[in-house]
User: Fold this.
Amino acid sequence: MNLATGPYGKITPMAPVSLIVVGAGQRGAGYARWVRRHPDRATVVAVAEPSQVRRARLATEHGIAPENTAADWQDLAARGQIADAVLICTQDRMHAEPAEAFAALGYHILLEKPMAPDEAGCQRIVAAVEKAGVMLAVGHVMRYTPYTRAVKQIADSGQLGDVMSVQHLEPVGFWHQAHSYVRGNWRRSDLATTMLMAKSCHDLDWLQYVLGRAPLRVSSFGSLTHFTAANRPPGAADRCVACSVEPDCPYSATRLYRGLLDRGEHGWPLSVVVDDFSPQALEEALDNGPYGRCVYACDNDAVDHQVVTLEYPGATTATFTMTAFTQAGHRRTQVFGTRAELTGDGETIRVYDFLTGAERTVTPAAAGGMNAEEGHAGGDAGLMDAFTAAVATGNRELISSGPRESLASHLAVFAAERARLNGTVETIPPYAGKLSRTGRVAAQPATTCTRQVWPWHGVDTSTSRPALVSRTV
Ligand SMILES: NC(=O)c1ccc[n+]([C@@H]2O[C@H](COP(=O)([O-])OP(=O)(O)OC[C@H]3O[C@@H](n4cnc5c(N)ncnc54)[C@H](O)[C@@H]3O)[C@@H](O)[C@H]2O)c1
Assistant:
């Protein structure tokens, strides 16, 4: 037994929970690193990973016995329940099956987003965890940052008055777009999922969380416009290593990855390109691997800019912009209320009060950049903290990204993508059941409960949490 003080202000006696890791890639290894830093909270007792290098690395770091390692998640599942919980960190199209299997075995589940690339898969996951009565935390890490908790606390406090509009920007960053969505794992929707789901399901989920409601209607525009063969500069080669115009190209793979290696920055994104951080391994990857390709000569279809407009209950409107063509950085948001305006840049929050003319600045505890290498500004740690505490105590309330609210925000993403592709305004089906972060409210048939559930439709009851560091200027 030990004492744990999470960001929730409670002191709760907790025994370390036992975890198995399914998929020891970037995310699985990242969550496992948190466990190594918090041995009093959790232990990793088994791993399933086809890559021998990754499997062996994680097994060594956690002292996992050889019989508790497997190349495939199905081999671990075949052994029945050998731990309290599972971290499912496989790629986008490999989430629903293991989630269903491990739920049926009684595991609590931390599941990376997206839940699934299609609505049916998401619904199957929710049905499976509800049938099994296990907890599910979806990897909506943005809900768990100190910054988000501060924004949510302000929005919930009433000091903004009624929120009328929101403007939210996701500056993906020129090199991040090239790395993940032109050359990398999320470049094609048939291999992974759509850009909006891959990158911006976090944002539609974040808006739902902060506003406390799911949207009713959406429209969307956007396309893949720049990273196409039509924009290939004259004289460009298929690979950056052999390209005469590479010095003038902002998207040069050689500049990006050799620079990271030279500076000894071996984490993400370099760790996606090579397992072995030697110049030879990198040159081999640049010569032959996907990450050495010209951004104008790839097999990508992910959009490079997209806007979504949303209407929420209460006539609140929001606009969301995702764009590749930025310096990579924190999301930026303005929330416009009837009494005050909130401006947030991912680190600092300013609230301008219309009545007094005073501007208050809130600076939540610094938690690093909003990228994978830096743990998503405290979101990865916040999620692990909440999930392990929930498993240890049996308190589902600690998980704010449970099955129902995560399903609701995924449904909004699917609707927005339909709107973009079809040029329509999409009405999001009324959600059958009050949204609750606990996930314990059973779904009801939509035909019988559309009216019944009103005004609960779209209400996200997830609450804000800890105290803030704030000063008035
Ligand atoms: N929450 C976030 O902010 C966030 C950020 C990045 C990625 N993600 C999501 O996390 C998931 C994983 O992303 P990643 O970057 O870690 O990918 P990754 O490719 O680095 O890791 C996935 C791992 O799964 C392994 N795998 C494949 N088949 C398997 C099997 N049958 N059994 C067990 N393991 C298997 C792969 O070998 C790989 O190591 C994706 O769905 C991605 O969209 C979430």
Q: What stands out?
A: The longest helix spans residues 403-422. The two ends are 44 Å apart (CA to CA). The domain at 1-134+452-473 is CATH 3.40.50.720 (Rossmann fold).
